[in-house]
Amino acid sequence: MAARHLAAGAADRLARPGRRGRPPERLPRLLGDLGPTYVKGAQLLSTRADLLSPAVCDALGRLHDRVPGMSAAQLDRALSEAYPDGSAWPFRTFDRTAVAGGSIACVYRAALLDGTDVAVKLLRPGVRRAMETDFALLASGARLAERLPPLRGVPARRVVRQLGDALLRQVDLAREADSLALLRANLADLPFVRVPAPFPAAAGPGALVMEYVERLERFAPGDFGKEERRQIVRNVLRCVYRMLFIDGLVHCDMHPGNLYLGPDGSVVLLDAGFVVRLEPRVRLLFARFFMNLSLGRAAEAAESVLRSAEHVPAGCDLDAFRAEIGALVEESAGRTAGQFRLAPFATRLFDIQRRSGVAAAPEFVFPLMSLLVLEGMINDFDVDVDFQGEAIPTLLAALNG
What we know:
The chain is of the alpha+beta class. The chain has three domains: 2-61, no CATH class; 127-169; 216-401, no CATH class. 50% of the residues lie in helices and 12% in strands. The longest helix has 22 residues, at 226-247. This is Protein kinase domain-containing protein. It holds the Pfam family ABC1. GO terms for molecular function: ATP binding; protein kinase activity. Residues 93-401 form the Protein kinase domain.
């Protein structure tokens, strides 16, 4: 979350009129120079057209899948680290031109020895050390932040540590292969979702090999009609709500570089690097809160927040707390995607908790992050979709299962 705020500050400063030589077009290069942690923050921000100007969102959006690939020397180093024994080379052909470039890794097309087309994800050399340094700095900032009067009681260090652990898992490609296989198994009964199969036998340290999916289209409204756009949004929401409320294995990085449309209109999930496992207690508490929000049950929603809190101070005015949470829920319940904004809702929710001294559980960062990343893209497709109501069938299955 701190990376997001730092990236937001940079975006805001560069977007102000009158700053010569620093137009939004320079944002991708600036953030790329700062390192992968800040690029990840920018990727989240680029989906928030309701918070940033179109020029800034467009500039940040280039970081999703248009980051330059590795140089020839970097690619040679990455391949030698992944396949140090030349006799274990698993490919018949390997195209050295990247099909996608990210801040952490680049993807190349290849063919296995049996001719199977695959995508090969290779870590950029030195990326782990750079991210560890970034999060050491952010952890220091979090320690200082916790001493500020407005942030006392906010577990900033724990939030940064959890976010850092989750992002650092993105450089563990063996773990990502396992997450990809689990997501594929969990979502197998959703015919409108496709997750590429991993090929662990062809992998190496710093290399993930997976099925190559042909003819992908960017996740954008494009030429789709109104009903087609609504169906696509419903499919995405059903997929996300399934992960959040039933499986507890959550893809927290569903930005346009990782979410595509197949030629049949299916939703294609790529990159399982930022996948978080929710503990059953957290999953159920979040499900209860979201259900109460969707149905406008203010009192029950307030109780869900209290039960999920990490700390409730002695002497807290619980009646006032319940009243404020209840008022927020009543204002927000039953709104469409175009009317409901998760970012200001979450800001108000956490502000109420902060002023009351009710410390929010840091585990709630990840479900909210998954929805925040997705919210901007959903609004591009269909502002009238019932963002909350679409969750109810899945919530009922989760809470009654």
